[in-house]
Amino acid sequence: MKNEWPLWEVFVRGKRGLNHVHVGSLRASDGEMAVRHARDLYTRRNEGVSIWVVPAAAIVASSPDEKDPFFAPSADKVYRHPTFYDIPDNVPHM
Amino acid sequence: MTSALQEYFDATIANEQRIEPRDWVPDGYRKTMVRQIAQHAHSEIIGMQPEGNWITRAPSLRRKAILLAKVQDEAGHGLYLYAAAETLGADRTELTENLIAGRQKYSSIFNYPTLTYADVGVIGWLVDGAAICNQVPLCRSSYGPYARAMIRICKEESFHQRQGYELLMTMMRGTQAQRDMVQEATNRWWWPALMMFGPPDADSTNTAQSMAWKIKRHTNDELRQRFVDMSVPQARALGVSLPDPQLRWNPEREHHDFGDIDWVEFKRVVSGHGPCNAERVAIRKAAHEEGAWVREAASAYAEKHAREEVMT
User: Fold this and answer.
1) Looking at the complex, does the CB of residue B237 fall below 8 Å from at least one CB of chain A?
2) What is the pLDDT of residue A27?
3) Do A1 and B296 touch (CB under 8 A)?
4) Tens digit of pLDDT for each residue in A17-74?
């Protein structure tokens, strides 16, 4: 009988003050087991103080195929960046 | 459409950017990548056996704790890599079944037996040393999930190599019998370690395409030379000789020359006729089959609790 446990994506907070960051994935039968396996697999050397696991199937992602049009609204608004504005050098603290 | 995708893929590779899981890739790239990652994962998992053999007979609690941690790391490395293979659409259960059925290979080095505790040290020094030579450039491999797994693995391999070398230094400070064990283990592992880099460039069918795709960064012979040059001063510091009468420094090449590798033996071991091939696969097969009920029970438990949560 083929019996594959579901896939979980693992996120680890390296230390207090940092975001959880994706570190990889693993297979586990439920969330509790996924957290335990994540501890054994991804934090054997003090790599984290907190772990999130998320069923991989629950992740909704943008598609790489439509990458350019999808991110176009961000690319054409240069005025969102501080470097867009010319401020004379003699103005301090800006 | 396909040509636009191909162009985008080629440009990503040319710009030293990483390929990520949902990107379009040519079939050949996917196949090569899955084959390489799976073979690497299998090597880590099978690689638990030669050293696992000594856990119950470690000479001290300190050595036992170190060896346990090391073998646990090998399991971890295998799991990082299976996860990376899955991002390319490979099925994890199928990969294990391919290993058990002999459809996919693992590194030939793990088909040699570990006869004494000095083997544990020499595996750390030479086998993990060779693995590091192979793996450090793979941290820049073009496939993102593989490169990221390699970064984690390389960090941990450094512990593996150092504990092995330290173990050997300790034995070299011991009795003559212990020093002889270290020399004897070095003699047995040196040539198989050189074979870990794969066939010579002239006979390596996959190298050119893998280099073009930036899956591989150096040829087999380049890495082998680097390993020989690194190992010679380490052997000297340890006080052992390497079993190769032709091994000597060549000032013109600024590298060590070394003797011919027995590629007939390599082919024999890779094709399943090494000293331990049958045993290694049989143990992996038994573990997989005898663990089936555990996997099923955990699934049944998870399903039952999921149902109860819906009802309450």
Assistant:
1) no
2) 96
3) yes
4) 999 999 999 999 999 999 999 999 999 998 999 999 999 999 998 877 666 777 877 7
Cα separation, B50 vs A68, whole angstroms? 50
- State which residue of chain B sits closest to A56, comparing Cα positions: B87
ipTM confidence: 0.89
* pTM of the full structure: 0.92
Least confident of B63-67, B187-191, B204-208: B204-208
Q: Which of B79, B86, B96 to mutate to test the interface with A (most CBs of A within 10 A)?
A: B79
C-beta separation of B90 from B34 below 8 A? yes
Which residues 50-69 in chain A show a CB within 8 A of chain B? 61, 63-65
Q: Which two tokens stand for residue B250?
A: 């060549």
In Å, the largest CA–CA distance within chain B is 79
Do B238 and B182 contact (CB within 8 A), yes or no? yes
Q: What is the DSSP letter of B143?
A: B
Domains delineated in chain A: 7-62 (3.10.20.520)
Mean pLDDT, rounded, of chain B? 95
Q: Which residues are CB-neighbours of B207 under 8 A, at least 6 positions away? A: B201, B216, B219, B220
Work out how many CB contacts closer than 8 A connect A with B.
55
Provide the pLDDT for residue A1.
Answer: 44
Q: Give A75's contacts (C-beta < 8 A, 6+ positions apart).
A: none
Dig out the tokens for B12 from the structure.
């990503």
Classify residue B285 by burial, with Cβ atoms within 10 Å: 0-12, 13-18, 19+: middle
The CA distances from residue B177 to B116, B118, B170, in Å, are 12, 11, 13
